[in-house]
Design a protein that fits this description.
Largest sheet: 5 strands, parallel
Number of strands: 9
Distance between the termini: 34 Å
Bound molecules: iron/sulfur cluster, FE3-S4 cluster
Number of domains: 2
CATH topology of the largest domain: Rossmann fold
Structural class: alpha/beta
CATH architecture of the largest domain: 3-Layer(aba) Sandwich
Strand content: 5-15%
CATH superfamily of the largest domain: NADH:ubiquinone oxidoreductase-like, 20kDa subunit
Length: 364
């Protein structure tokens, strides 16, 4: 994890044996995610190659370590991994070799040496019911968060627990769990929810910071719009079946075998904003719906408490075309109209994405 202070992505690339072509492919993916034209993808590559490393302190509070697992058990070797190597991960009590006093003093040294510049990443919620419910090196989570946030340039709340309270905050919330944004009011807090979040989304936010020196634009829930701007339903490959009213009624019926829509089996895709249907998981192999299970809504606030996982939200009652035409309907049909409009709006951007190729980027 330790790199010289003047290390750049360019140096790390050659050290890691990752080809320039793979790197450019990653930049094209980022440009597509940010809805930028091909020329901007080149600019991203140039900026990222020469970006200095950023110091990162990662604190884990009330969590299951799934967020770290998601990141580290992604695919190797990858440019996303390289971005993580490129940052100076000065403190992460799951991943670091140091322990005890040595670990804590590394954190304090980094905070002092990089005051005002380091990124603070947090996974897990913070218990306010009793400071002793969760501690690190004898320090309560709330005290450690407030101390570490003081000198941070920005705070990234990774995972639904840090972003919204998550499972620890589910009713009756026995520890008084709160999200990071409940406590940090004087710094930018960016939420990267998901249970766990998609690895490329976490690294995409870091790459944005390295490239542009700033955090991406956020939605009303503090999530980066580039990754959380559309619902799963907007981009779901089963959407044509939804629009035709073809639904699986059980996990082993004919509809399920034919890959029909999982709405009646409780899919929360119509009300869940995340990038699973486009970036997918495990290096783009699949995502829950492709594996035959509906979306649970894991990137939305309070998803543990919003009703049974296997009960439909409500029933679609009319066709998307009628909804888009202005028919007044309630529930998920209205959601479908929004999704329909979003898809139309994003059409031009998608077309722009498709012309950004590695070959384009390699041209002088
Ligand atoms: Fe896909 Fe779920 Fe929407 Fe059906 S309801 S189209 S499975 S996101
Ligand atoms: Fe979560 Fe739904 Fe994606 S459950 S992993 S947001 S498909």
């Amino acid at each position: 994890m330790e790199r010289p202070a003047d290390s750049t992505v360019r140096l790390a690339l050659s050290e890691a044996g990752i080809s320039r072509r793979d790197f450019l492919g990653f930049c094209a993916t980022l440009a597509a995610a940010y809805a930028l034209p091909a020329a901007q993808a080149k600019a991203i590559a140039a900026a990222l190659e020469n970006a200095p490393r950023a110091s990162v302190i990662w604190l884990s509070f009330q969590e299951c370590t799934g967020c770290t697992e998601s990141l580290t058990r992604s695919h190797t070797p990858t440019v996303e991994g390289l971005i993580l190597e490129q940052i100076s991960l000065d403190y992460h009590h799951t991943l670091q070799a140091a322990s005890g006093e040595a670990a804590e003093s590394a954190r304090e040294l980094s905070m002092r040496g990089n005051a005002g510049k380091y990124l603070l990443i947090v996974d897990g919620s913070v218990p306010l019911g009793n400071p002793g419910f969760s501690t690190i090196a004898g320090v309560s989570n709330v005290d450690m968060l407030m101390e570490a946030a003081k000198g941070a340039a920005a705070v990234i709340a990774v995972g639904t627990c840090a972003a919204y309270g998550g499972l620890p905050a589910a009713q009756p919330n026995p520890t008084g769990a709160v999200p990071v944004s409940h406590l940090i009011k004087d710094k930018p807090v960016i939420n990267v929810p998901g249970c766990p979040p998609i690895p490329v989304v976490i690294t995409g936010v870091l790459a944005h910071f390295l490239t542009f020196g700033a955090l991406p634009e956020l939605d009303d829930f503090g999530r980066p719009k580039v990754f959380y701007g559309e619902t799963i339903h907007d981009r779901c490959y089963r959407r044509p079946f939804y629009d035709q009213g073809k639904f699986a009624n059980s996990f082993d019926d004919e509809g399920a075998r034919k890959g029909w829509c999982l709405f009646k089996l409780g899919c929360k895709g119509p009300v869940t904003y995340n990038a699973c249907a486009t970036t997918k998981w495990n290096n783009g192999v699949s995502f829950p719906i492709q594996s035959g299970h509906g979306c649970l809504g894991c990137s939305e606030p309070g998803f543990w408490d919003v009703g049974p996982f296997y009960k439909a939200l409500s029933m679609p009652t009319i066709s998307v075309q009628k909804v888009a035409g202005g028919a007044a309907v309630a529930g998920v049909a209205a959601g479908a109209a929004v999704a329909f409009a979003n898809r139309a709006k994003k059409g031009a951007a998608k077309a722009a994405h498709e012309v950004v190729t590695v070959d384009d980027l390699e041209k002088p």
